[in-house]
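Summary of Year 1 activities. Much of the first year was spent building the evaluation harness for sequence design. The harness presents a backbone, in tokenized form, and records the residue chosen at every position. We chose the following record to illustrate the format because it has been used consistently in internal testing since the harness was completed.
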């Protein structure tokens, strides 16, 4: 499984960006995929995830209502639409997938635990939000 994140850039506070994560090697619906971010000097944190099994989604509280995760029809690309961006959203954003499990009504903690244990990671893309 390979993932490639792109779409980062510089945006003013209040603006929007859409990140994309191109995937290859996901041969069934038994996967979950999502996004993490890491700001300078801080630990990596989970943001959002989506189930390949039933399409359910989950979000970190601080981004809920501003960010939306989705996939294209072929499920080859995962998107993170980010609206109302804030300077504290500045970070390197990573996409990650975990395969081999059926995910029903996905939750972020379970996805994060599984990804940290056996996930596939893409390289990050930098998002900078200016004030």
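For this record, the design step produced the sequence shown next.
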């Amino acid at each position: 499984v390979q993932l490639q994140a792109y779409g980062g850039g510089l945006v003013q506070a209040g603006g929007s960006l859409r990140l994309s994560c191109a995937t290859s090697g996901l041969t069934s619906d038994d996967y979950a995929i999502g996004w993490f971010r890491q700001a300078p000097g801080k630990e990596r944190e989970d943001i959002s995830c989506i189930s390949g099994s039933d399409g359910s989604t989950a979000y970190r509280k601080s981004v809920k209502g501003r960010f939306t995760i989705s996939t294209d029809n072929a499920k080859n690309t995962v998107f993170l639409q980010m609206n109302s961006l804030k300077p504290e959203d500045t970070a390197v954003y990573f996409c990650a997938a975990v395969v081999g499990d059926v995910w029903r009504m996905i939750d972020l903690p379970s996805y994060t635990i599984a990804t940290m244990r056996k996930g596939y990671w893409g390289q990050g893309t930098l998002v900078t939000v200016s004030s």
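The longest strand covers residues 91-99. Quantitative recovery figures across the full test set are reported in Table 2.
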